[in-house]
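Students often ask why we bother encoding 3D structure as a string. The short answer is that it lets us treat folding as translation between two languages. Here is a chain of 189 residues written in the first language.
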Amino acid sequence: MRRILPPILLALAGCDDIELPACPPGHVDSLGGCVFDEATAIDLVTTFDQGDLEKINGEPFLQIVSATVPIERNVWVTPTPVVVEDDTLELTAADLYRQIDPDHLAPLDGDFPVGTVIVHEAVNREEGHAVQIRLADDYDDGFGRHWWFAKVFDDGTLDENPCNPCSDCHNSAVRPESDGLWGVPPDLR
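And here it is in the second language, the structure alphabet:
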């Protein structure tokens, strides 16, 4: 994405067309650099199935949200490149998510980059979609996570109820090898 500097900076720089790196998904430019913006994140979530995110599972699966609430889901993840120590390995956040096995803890081949978006689409869309966006390491939601969690409906409305099941299960203490993420059953990928 091409970004143009404000006129005052252009005059100071003596240039009229300087390209800047784009901010990660769910973030906007500010004077301090790219910052997370909830409204931008919600806008992104309302269009998750229109080509910007990659579907992880081939068919919907039941996700147990609590002992009494199974929800039929599809999972979508941004194909953001992942930086790995082994330069010969090329991965995206979607590839990294596919490595997560809900039944087995194993180290991943990299870390999820800032701006990784994960949408747990509710097949019954009236239930809303669970959303996670990876934020910078200096962000802490009070549970030791660097992820923004929300439930968003198709019309862009944010569910105002706190996500206690998210807080209980999606944390590095419970899932240390996968950054608190649970993945999709291997036979459905």
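Translate back mentally: Residues 5 and 11 are 10 Å apart (CA to CA). Keep this in mind for the problem set.
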